[in-house]
């Protein structure tokens, strides 16, 4: 019997496209069926899912449409590519052509997914690590492989598929050599254009620049330059050697939005309108002087760049001319949570981030690499004849401490298989079991890998400054918005819920400016969040706005042997609103109760903005824990239903703040309570 003739080109494409569509639509369905819970960083709530479907059904359906469209387009493209291979090899049956599309599409989807999984394993942990034994084993194995291996195999598959078709056309004498040569030359020209990296224009501004490099939740005691045993921060350590740093810098409220507002406005929360994280529209549209407004009025170009944790810069009026930061509203959260369940689609969203910008807003994807590219573009946009002030805020040291390859797992034990192998995040429900010492060690190891990833980012940015000739004319500052609790001593995870210990309250404050800031100086004077902005303005030769409440510490930074002594001033501290009333942490025993976040916030039906309900504002303010650091003492006031609980700690004799000593020092308690009341006189009724 005579074998069938090869199928026509169009017929082959039809069947391979059907195969490609079948595989990608099947994978979409599987992901949708097996990942139907709408949670956020491991926190799930049935009432929230009901609210989403009732009030935001159109957003859900719209995202379903976008996801289906993306899978369909991928299926079409993969079917076309595989169709070239099938036709070039002389496919003779429709079933065979279909299998080319289906099998090739499945293989390409798998390779792309494995490559992204190796690069960002935390991104896949929520859907794979606890799913089943084989998915856990797969993630663990792939996370230890180089992403380039999988990417190279995927690229080879795509590039090799058209070769049989090209060869067949040549054999058929279709005169393909000439257009093929043109295509190759064109590809070469495009490659040269993409690789072209002209020298930036030489700076001509006579005024200095300001560059603030910050990462969310960066703890100074985890920097190797401060004596930490792991080598987590070689580039930051270099800045410490070439500049000055403060041994202790305290923020007022260890949550991102209120803390950045205090850092930039030099006003305590309560003096400025951002009194907690879930601010309403009135606070979001208010206007007040900040470091950015002062610099802008003096002729500086101002910009802020951020990834996941920096949504506050797009929501709060902090005065920057240019803001590149993610949004934070209910529709965005819905799109994020629906996209992250589509593990097969995630690798492709990285290729065209503009089509799915919510990928860069994943808490699980805190890779500073995109920020490095944004930094280069921002520096290109600045007018070289005018000074610039650029704040870059990374999220890699924020929970779940999702360091990318090659830093992920750097400090973990090879046998680590516990629940915190791929990070951890605070939970709003009480944990089922107490974390073991091994779990805490894994958590700290992941955090340290994130510090190392941020440090590498600092090194890349400093290299960019040096390439542009800006390193010596730029005041470079390392900063953070707050520290982080890493499950030490029953103090939980995260930040903002309580004031015990200094882990969430201390931040690095490192300044480098050759010839203007002393080299290698460690300052024991306690710096406060409200002191940061006036210090930077004086170093740049500018006066602080009259609304600023902090003092400049610039005199301590001047080169020379003489370092003046400054009088001690109190550093105020307070908690943010509590997200949960059932997380099982010790602070729940010493607080005025109110419901958890799901019950006290509201969502604007028009914009999707999330804010505290007005009727809970007074309760939240009255319930806050407050206190201050002053000299060797730390005072805490904890309102409870039974009355005010007062605690006192001697931070010199007891730096870990484990021993409460108020009963031994009643006079100190009385003096500090009076001082706290005087310092908070703006809040008096």
Automatic annotation (TrEMBL):
Keywords, sorted A to Z: Membrane, Transmembrane, Transmembrane helix
**Name of the protein this chain belongs to:** Sulfatase-like hydrolase/transferase
Give the organism's phylogenetic lineage. Answer: Bacteria, Pseudomonadati, Myxococcota, Myxococcia, Myxococcales
Give a yes or no for keyword Membrane in this entry: yes
- Family matches, as Gene3D superfamilies: 3.30.1120.10, Alkaline Phosphatase, subunit A (3.40.720.10)
For this protein, the record's InterPro entries field holds: Alkaline_phosphatase_core_sf, GAG_Ulvan_Degrading_Sulfatases, Sulfatase_N
Which Pfam families does its entry note? Sulfatase
Looking at the record, the residues that make up the Sulfatase N-terminal domain are 208-541
Ranges annotated as spanning the membrane: 12-40, 60-85, 97-118, 148-167, 179-196
């Amino acid at each position: 019997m005579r074998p069938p003739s090869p199928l026509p080109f169009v017929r082959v494409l039809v069947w391979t496209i059907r195969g490609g569509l079948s595989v990608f639509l099947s994978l979409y369905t599987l992901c949708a069926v097996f990942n139907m819970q709408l949670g956020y960083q491991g926190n799930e709530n049935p009432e929230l899912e009901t609210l989403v479907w009732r009030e935001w059904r159109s957003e859900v359906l719209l995202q379903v449409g976008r996801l289906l469209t993306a899978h369909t387009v991928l299926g079409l493209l993969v079917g076309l590519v595989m169709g070239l291979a099938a036709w070039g090899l002389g496919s003779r049956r429709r079933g065979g052509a279909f299998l080319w599309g289906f099998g090739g599409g499945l293989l390409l989807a798998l390779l792309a997914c494995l490559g992204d999984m190796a690069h960002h394993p935390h991104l896949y942990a929520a859907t794979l690590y606890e799913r089943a034994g084989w998915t856990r084993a797969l993630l663990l194995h792939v996370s230890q492989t180089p992403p380039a291996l999988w990417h190279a195999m995927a690229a080879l598959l795509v590039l090799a598929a058209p070769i049989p078709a090209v060869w067949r056309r040549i054999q058929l004498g279709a005169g393909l050599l000439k257009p093929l040569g043109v295509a190759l030359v064109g590809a070469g020209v495009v490659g040269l254009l993409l690789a072209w990296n002209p020298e930036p224009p030489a700076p001509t501004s006579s005024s200095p620049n300001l560059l603030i490099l910050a990462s969310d939740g960066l703890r100074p005691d985890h920097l190797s330059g401060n004596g930490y045993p792991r080598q987590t921060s070689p580039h930051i350590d270099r800045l410490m050697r070439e500049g000055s740093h403060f041994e202790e810098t305290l923020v007022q409220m260890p949550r991102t939005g209120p803390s950045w507002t205090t850092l930039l406005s030099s006003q305590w929360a309560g003096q400025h309108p951002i009194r907690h994280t879930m601010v309403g529209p009135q606070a979001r549209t208010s206007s007040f002087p900040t470091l950015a407004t002062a610099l802008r009025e003096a002729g500086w170009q101002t910009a802020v760049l951020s990834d996941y944790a920096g949504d506050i810069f797009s929501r709060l009026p902090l005065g920057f001319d240019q803001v590149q930061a993610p949004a934070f509203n209910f529709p965005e959260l819905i799109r994020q949570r629906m996209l992250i369940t589509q593990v097969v689609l995630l690798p492709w969203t990285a290729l065209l981030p503009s089509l799915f910008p919510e990928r860069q807003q994943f808490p699980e994807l805190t890779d500073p690499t995109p920020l490095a590219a944004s930094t280069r573009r921002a520096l290109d946009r600045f007018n070289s004849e005018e000074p610039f002030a650029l704040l870059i805020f990374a999220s890699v040291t924020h929970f779940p401490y999702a360091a990318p390859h090659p830093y992920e797992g750097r400090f973990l034990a090879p046998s680590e298989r516990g629940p915190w192998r791929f990070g951890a995040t605070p939970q709003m429900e009480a944990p089922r079991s107490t974390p073991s010492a091994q779990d805490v060690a894994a958590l700290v190891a992941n955090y340290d890998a994130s510090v190392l990833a941020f440090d590498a980012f600092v090194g890349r940015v400093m290299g960019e400054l040096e390439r542009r000739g800006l390193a010596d004319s730029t005041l470079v500052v390392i900063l953070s918005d707050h520290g982080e609790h890493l499950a030490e001593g029953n103090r939980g995870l995260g930040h903002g819920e309580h004031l015990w210990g200094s882990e969430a309250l201390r931040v690095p404050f490192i300044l480098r400016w050759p010839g203007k800031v002393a080299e290698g100086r460690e300052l024991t004077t306690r710096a406060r969040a409200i002191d940061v902005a006036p210090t930077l303005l004086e170093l740049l030769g500018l006066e602080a706005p009259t609304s600023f409440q902090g003092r400049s510490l610039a005199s301590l930074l001047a080169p020379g042997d003489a370092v003046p002594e400054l009088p001690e001033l109190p550093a105020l501290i307070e908690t943010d609103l509590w997200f949960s009333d059932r997380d099982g942490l010790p602070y729940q025993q010493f607080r005025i109760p109110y419901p958890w976040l799901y019950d006290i916030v509201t969502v604007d039906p028009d914009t999707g903005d999330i804010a505290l309900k007005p009727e809970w504002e007074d309760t939240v303010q009255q319930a806050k824990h407050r206190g201050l650091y002053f000299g060797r003492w730390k005072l805490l006031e904890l309102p409870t239903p039974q009355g005010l609980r007062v605690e006192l700690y001697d931070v010199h004799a007891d730096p870990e703040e484990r021993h409460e000593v108020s009963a031994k020092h009643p006079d100190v308690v009385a003096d500090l309570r009076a001082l706290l009341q005087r310092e908070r006189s703006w809040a008096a009724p």
